[in-house]
Design goal:
The chain is α/β, with parallel strands linked by helices. It is about 30% helix and about 25% strand.
């Protein structure tokens, strides 16, 4: 008659937040009656079950078995925790656990509120173990903190100290394949937990994509799950030097795991895509996949250097896809606003490429995860080391086609607004005139009215489905009450004609500005919205500054640059929020360089780039941003550019700039310096909004100069032809 196998107590530790998922996993391995504690599961089971957890758990950190408990005597008031730990260690015969010729190490974990020098206390535990050996067998084991044959895990508690044998040895998250690292990688067991939560194996996807793959952790963990590869198949364990180790039992479990993996490798796999904007990450992913033993399936994995803006056509129609990624959040990217822009851009790309498919995306904050457009979203909070992370799971919402506002706008029926009849008629007429053009050209942001009538001195700009209304400050000769009444009439008429409510209309008063006043903050409301222009998504701020971040009168110039930029090196001086650079980048520019004195606007620029899936945080940057005076920057460098855009202010006396800048006075030296940086066959576009500006004859004598103002003014500014002037400047060809 066979005796029942002996049951022992085992602890399975894990990262905070993984307890429930880990319990599901080890119960799936046949373990019963599991108790759950913060960061730890406890069960009574057989050695075989403990071995199976070591072999198969993708989520656990360690598997421990308690072997000795030292209960504390509180007859004295003062506690010396280090000496208590020594007493507990020396009072147990450790030669029963491992041989004196083995090397060992101690890991000490101290419960909260216990004050002790952990380094000294760990040393005292080691002293106790060594002294115990000397008393028992007259020999002492050696200490090896890097690769010990035996690891002892000690929990120092308030009423007792527990001494455990660490069956896992090194942490179980270390699978042995991560030979090459990138910044802030996710731990392997957390990646596996996310895949388990997402039910990857049950989904049987045709496509698996990680668009920001880093060192390839999600790709490799997905391969391990789908090929039934046990994470412990090729690693060394801490129980191998234990006196209680059952070699035959372990070899049987190992052989079974190897056979399961072999059978699964014969089955078809999904098509994997691993992308990253960093070439070093691409190399690391490939090398780690090979180190993990999956070289034979490399033809199933497309590993490429790509930004989010550079996704190919996945041809996912009729196929199921699973997207999982760990974006470069937090310190890897920069401020919170840039992080939000990254997640907005990622969300838009997922909606476009993988509608109704499943995704799991890591974020550093709930606010980032909240912008992801998922149906039935779930959130999981985990700890990646000491860093909290949030994982958003859900089905990707299909993208909605955003049409220009004027496409669906029709003349409204409303009661006559007495005193504003002329304004109402003019605004409605303008919108009818612009409607066909805006729909044909897919224009979402345009000027609807610009002080057309003397009595209604306002500018009405459309940004997507919102209005930006600027009241030009009336002369001092006008009664303020009368001006206020007229402006209120204009607002009533604007709401009636457009059909837009108060919450979609943003109001500012604009006086004549000089220097940096036009860029100074007017509000702290921070109403920022995304609008579309050509291929670009652009962040506009309709409250905080007089200018919104997008100069509407330069739309045609930006679209021109987008059409000409492919393969060219583009320079944008006085770049503001770098929307021209963004268009150049999306048009296929080989590189873009944006120069502006304001860090505020350069950060805004980076957000625009990130929003469109373009990378801005690498040292060998394709897209560079410099906070500098343009004159100084031009003087100090020597790089050549194929396409240059200069849109300087009329006047500037910024604190960062020594002296003043006057566009009429200083444009000669500015253009000459810029032309020194223009390639022989290159083109420089120069534009400014100073109505009295005249291009100096010296420039016209030195270069091939063509005024193209009429080509750069859209239909919405045709009434106001003097809004800006623009020139195309080339080197004279011999």
């Amino acid at each position: 008659m066979n005796s029942k196998p002996r049951l022992s107590t085992y602890w399975v530790t894990c990262a905070d937040g993984l307890e429930t998922l880990l319990q599901e996993e080890i119960e799936g391995l046949g373990v019963e009656n599991v108790e759950r504690f913060p960061g730890r599961l406890v069960f009574k089971g057989t050695l075989e079950q403990a071995y199976r957890v070591c072999m198969w758990s993708r989520l656990a950190s360690r598997v421990l078995t308690p072997i000795h408990v030292h209960e504390l005597d509180f007859t004295h008031d003062a506690r010396d925790v280090a000496e208590e730990l020594y007493e507990g260690a020396i009072n147990f015969d450790w030669s029963l656990i491992f041989a004196p010729q083995s090397t060992f190490a101690v890991r000490l974990h101290v419960e909260r509120e216990i004050k002790v020098n952990t380094q000294f206390a760990t040393l005292r535990v080691k002293d106790g173990v060594v002294d115990s050996f000397m008393e028992a067998v007259g020999k002492r084991p050696s200490i090896d903190i890097k690769q010990p044959e035996i690891t002892l895990y000690v929990l120092a508690g308030k009423t007792e100290h527990t001494y455990c044998l660490d069956l896992s040895g090194d942490s179980l998250h270390k699978r042995g394949y991560r030979r090459f690292m990138t910044d802030a990688p996710i731990k392997e067991n957390l990646a596996a937990a996310i895949l388990q939560k997402a039910k990857l194996k049950q989904r049987h996807p045709d496509i698996i994509l990680d668009p920001m793959c880093g060192s390839g952790t999600f790709i490799i963990e997905s391969l391990m799950v789908l090929t039934d590869r046990a994470p412990g198949l090729v690693r060394r364990f801490g129980f191998l030097g234990w006196n209680g180790h059952d070699h035959d039992l372990w070899m049987n479990i190992k052989a079974e795991a190897a056979e399961r993996h072999k059978d699964a490798m014969a089955q078809p796999l999904p098509q994997f895509y691993a992308y990253d904007a960093d070439w070093e990450a691409v190399k690391a992913t490939k090398q780690n996949i090979i180190a993990a033993g999956f070289e034979s399936v490399l033809d199933q994995i497309k590993i490429e250097e790509r930004t989010l803006a550079d996704w190919p056509d996945f041809q996912a129609e009729g196929k199921s896809a699973f997207v999982v990624t760990n974006p470069p959040y937090g310190e890897r990217l920069g401020d919170k606003a840039s992080n939000r822009a990254l997640y907005l851009g990622l969300s838009a790309l997922l909606q476009k490429n993988f509608p109704n498919q499943y995704a799991a995306v890591i974020a550093a904050a709930v606010e980032q995860a909240d912008v992801l457009a998922f149906n039935n979203p779930q959130i999981l909070r985990l700890m990646n080391g000491k860093l909290p992370i949030y994982v958003r799971f859900g089905d990707i919402k299909p993208a909605t086609v955003v049409k220009p506002f004027l496409a669906d706008w029709q003349p409204q029926q409303f009661e006559k607004i007495e005193g504003a009849e002329d304004f109402t008629n003019r605004l409605q007429k303008n919108m009818q005139t612009l409607k066909k053009w805006a729909v044909k050209e897919n224009i979402h942001c345009l000027r609807l009215y610009d002080a057309d009538l003397p009595d209604f001195n306002v500018a009405v700009d459309l940004y997507g489905e919102r209005l930006h209304v600027q009241e030009y400050a009336p002369p001092k000769t006008i009664d303020p009450e009368k001006a206020k009444k007229r402006f209120n009439l204009a607002l009533a008429a604007i709401r009636a004609v457009t059909g837009l409510g108060r919450d979609a209309i943003f109001i500012k008063t604009r006086a004549r500005q000089e220097g940096k006043t036009q860029y100074s903050k007017q509000s702290t409301a921070s109403k920022r919205f995304i609008v579309q222009e050509g291929k670009a998504k652009i962040l506009v701020n309709l409250t905080d500054y007089l200018d919104t971040g997008l100069f509407l009168d330069h739309r045609q110039m930006r679209l021109r640059i987008a059409a000409e930029a492919k393969g060219k090196h583009f320079l944008n001086l006085y770049s503001y929020t770098s929307t021209a650079s963004l268009h150049a980048a999306l048009g296929g520019a080989a590189s873009t360089t944006s120069v502006d004195l304001s860090n505020t606007y350069l950060n805004w620029s980076k957000e625009n780039f990130v929003l469109n899936g373009l990378t801005v945080d690498h040292a060998d940057e394709q897209h560079q941003f410099f906070a500098s005076d343009c004159f100084e920057w031009l003087k100090e460098g020597h790089e050549q550019y194929d396409l240059i855009f200069i849109d300087p202010p009329t006047f500037s006396n910024s604190k960062k700039f020594y002296g003043t800048f006057d566009v009429q006075r200083d444009h000669i030296s500015l253009i000459k310096r810029a032309m020194n940086r223009l390639s022989t066959q290159g083109t420089l576009y120069f534009s400014n909004n100073y109505r009295g500006f005249e291009m100096d004859e010296e420039i016209e004598a030195l270069y091939d100069v063509q005024e193209i103002s009429h080509e750069t003014i859209g239909l919405d500014f045709k009434r106001n032809q003097k809004i800006h002037r623009a020139w195309k400047i080339n080197h004279i060809q011999n």
